[in-house]
Specification:
By secondary structure, the chain is of the alpha/beta class. It has 2 helices and 9 strands. A 4-stranded mixed beta sheet has the order 3-2-5-4. The two termini are 16 Å apart.
């Protein structure tokens, strides 16, 4: 079981954690929503909670709750810039369908 980061994503997280001056890593999860069932949730982790699973890659801790991990195990998190837009992107091998807008997925 693992969640991985590209170098671009790791650099973005390190930069923002340094700017915030606090935090232990990146929290990745899912919530029920959207037209396909689930959406990714990403935030900075200020603490590791009971039941969290922690991975470390490229000098960044990735914190995931156990329920979310079952849906996103094997996912690679990337950070992309396209013109003026920039965002984290997810390559989840468990996805069986995505909505047209790319905001939600099903497994």
């Amino acid at each position: 079981m693992a969640i991985s980061l590209t170098e671009a994503a790791a650099e973005r997280v390190r930069t923002y954690l340094d700017a915030r001056g606090k935090g232990v890593g990146l929290r990745v999860g899912v919530r029920k929503t959207g037209c396909n069932g689930f959406a990714y949730v990403i935030n900075y982790a200020d603490e590791i909670e009971d039941g969290d699973v922690v991975f470390e890659q490229r000098g960044v801790k990735i914190v995931v709750d156990q329920t979310s991990l079952e849906l996103i195990d094997g996912t690679e998190v990337d950070f992309v810039k396209e013109g003026l837009n920039e965002a984290f992107r997810f390559r989840n091998p468990n996805v069986t369908g995505e909505c047209g807008c790319g905001e939600s997925f099903s497994v």
